[in-house]
Amino acid sequence: MDLIFEGLREAWRLLSTGDGDIYEITVRTAVITGTSTLVALAIGMPIGLGLALARFPGQRGFVALANAGTGTPPVVAGLLVAILLWRSGPLGSLGLIYTPAAIVIAQALIATPIIIAITAAAVMALPPTLHLQVRAMGADQRQYLWLIAREARLPLLVAVMAGFGAVVSEVGASMMVGGNLSGETRVLTTAAVLEVSRGNFGAALALGFILLAFIVAIAAVLTTVQQRARRR
Amino acid sequence: MTAARALGFEDVRVRRGRREVLRVPELSVHEGETVAVLGPNGAGKSSLLLTAALLLPVTSGTVSLFGEPARPRELVKLRRQTSTVFQEPALLDMNVRRNLETALSLHGVRRGERRERSEAWLGRLGVAHLAAAMPHTLSGGEARRVSLARAFAIRPRMLFLDEPFSALDVETRAELVGDLRALLRDEGTTALLVTHDHSEAQLLADRSLVLLEGAPAQLAPTADLLEAPESPEVAAFLGYSVVPRRDLPAPIAEALGGALIGVPPAAVRLADGGATAEVTAVQGAHGQGRLLLRIGNATLAAALSVTEIGARELHPGARVEIEVDPGLLVSWPSEQA
Q1: What ipTM was reported for this prediction?
Q2: Among 3.40.50.2020, 3.40.50.300, 3.20.20.105, 2.60.40.1120, what is the CATH number of B5-233?
């Protein structure tokens, strides 16, 4: 128990005194996870919409693939990206390994299948008559996609939350492709792992609290948006 | 002078999956008229409506709206001249006024005019007080009214209605049919209406089409169709008892020629001193009862109010005396007709 109280005291000290490293890591985490989520949304939502709305051979197989992808272990995603970006790898010439960009790529790879699967499920769950009604109202393809996405906006916000939750909490991929380099690629999760390995439980707990507060704050914002959308 | 053709089908065939659901060699709906599409479940009524509304692609043949063939590039432009009201109101998840305004914006109506027209149409349908309400708070009848207001607000040249009043209580349904009748007349909108209800067709449609197994069986002015079905199949669908002449007792069989006789339920009356028949089944819905009666070797249906059925304590096995009005009977020359 002493270890826990000692850790809590240390965490409070680090947070209240405004430790420079912790704030830098927090900001970097926000930028990297925010970018990964946006990249995954930009890729995943159109693919999810396409999977739900288009009719093509093998459509069910692709949906099943997206569903299976929601369980992609971060370590596997990290390994794949590491192989691609390794200096002798196919994309090694880009020099991205052990950079924040590499973490963004790996995290986007983790979040994209989640967003595809939830987007496709959300759109497929809309009543078939609604699709016909929107077309019957004279919507062109762009207006149709917009109105359908709008109708599915509540579950689509779940896709955003799930995608963000997956990237903000993963550690394996960030460690593997980012290298946990101080001042460059260290994020809250990798920093916490490092502090535990050093026996600095106070610092690790402080990082854990910040991570939790970060997740709760983002979830609160998204939930507020969701509830407002529900009332409108 | 014949009105211009609003909707045209030429050799239209439609497949859904592996099944051919529609075969329509020719169909015309003229501007200003309302045509009802009647048929049993699975006859292809909704497929016909979706095809006409350019929401279901044809496998072969041509659908044209206002003289313009529906080519893929023209679909959105042509759909914007029409409105469709489905069995479920299919309102968007936004308040009632915005539902109408969104439909108007898709038709390029300017922002200022959208609110004006939305409020005017909500008022005409008696739901102006619901402008700020969300669809999930509306009753079935209110949602249908909003759906109709949205459909009319865009001033469609043609309106498609797919059983718009099903699953409503009798009173609400009757009110809505009356209101729709007035709107169609006042606006002069051409309409294609899919319905199961013959009385709806009688009240709303100038002509009615009976669709059987995906193909038109008869298209005629509604009163003519209901009173003089051209084939035993159409008559059977309309509720006639279709029986071989030889199976009927002499007084009825001698009323008119032909090998097959069609007896509408309205032609059969309970009457003391008439021919004796045995009740084989008692059926009923929406306050209207129906007796199935065994007479000679034939089974005839008789329309009777549920009140009368109750008052006479009619049950299967009961014996009754009936008269058949020969003026309402129809006949066909061949049993294979």
Answers
A1: 0.87
A2: 3.40.50.300
